[in-house]
Fold this protein.
Amino acid sequence: MPSIDKPAQGYRGRFAPSPTGPLHFGSLVAAVGSYLDARAAGGEWLLRMEDVDEPRTVAGAAAAILHSLERLGFAWDGEVVYQSRRKPLYRAAFERLRLAGAVFACACTRREVADSALGIDAAPRYPGTCRNGLPQAREARAWRLKVEPGKVCFEDVLQGRICQDLAAEVGDFIVLRADGCFAYQLAVVTDDAEEGISHVVRGADLLDSTPRQICLQRHLGLAQPTYLHLPAAVNAAGEKLSKQTRAKPIDVARPQAALVAALEFLGQQPPADLQDAGLDHLWRWAIMNWNRSGLPSCRFAAVPEAY
Ligand code: GLU
């Protein structure tokens, strides 16, 4: 298991928000956690806009998120990467899977798989209808990865050993959607490898996606980054913060208040006067005092009342 105290050498981390709305407390926590873990290790921190899901992307949201991150005093390395401009990379990864016979064309509509037994996340588990060829007179809509029975396991720095039997819990999953968009799972794996990301620090709402990503890395012969899944912020109803659950945008007029709240959520112990300190001072304190051992190892935690 990777050590909780000592991040590895040659650290390159990233923050990868989906521009579906403004920065909210849940995404702020992922930004703060990934930034501090990288900077405390003397590492780089890259920014990627995950706008591969074009129908869900909201015009102006990427610019608004960047503006908020700037106002909060984040400093990223290099140019911001946009998934919408990297389709040839995803196409090349998809072609490698196709040539290796790892994917198959699927004609099923959402309605046709809706009655299947439920897998992880209460999503229907693909019953394998088109695995051995398209049914007569049906056309390919999406492409799925063939998953093999057996557990995919990894050591999460914070959550410990995580195992998932993809065949039993997820089923053959989509890598190229019926609407022509590459699936998040394929895009994120391609980007993490292409950008040389060594550490993925993100919310534990993505923990269940990680075995799918590792499975793709293995098929594509890509290095597996170290994973650290932070507690994901949930509202009073236990729902993940998002635009759908009407999460409030972070008030960047009061950056210190939001950052201190995120530090506290992450089990750090900011001194009371940090609220009134300059942003430079706040960030210096946070980097110097970043303490992985203080992180709560739960998957979900309640968002503070003000957020
Ligand atoms: N774009 C994803 C989100 O905003 C994060 C993906 C990741 O960090 O791997 O939830």
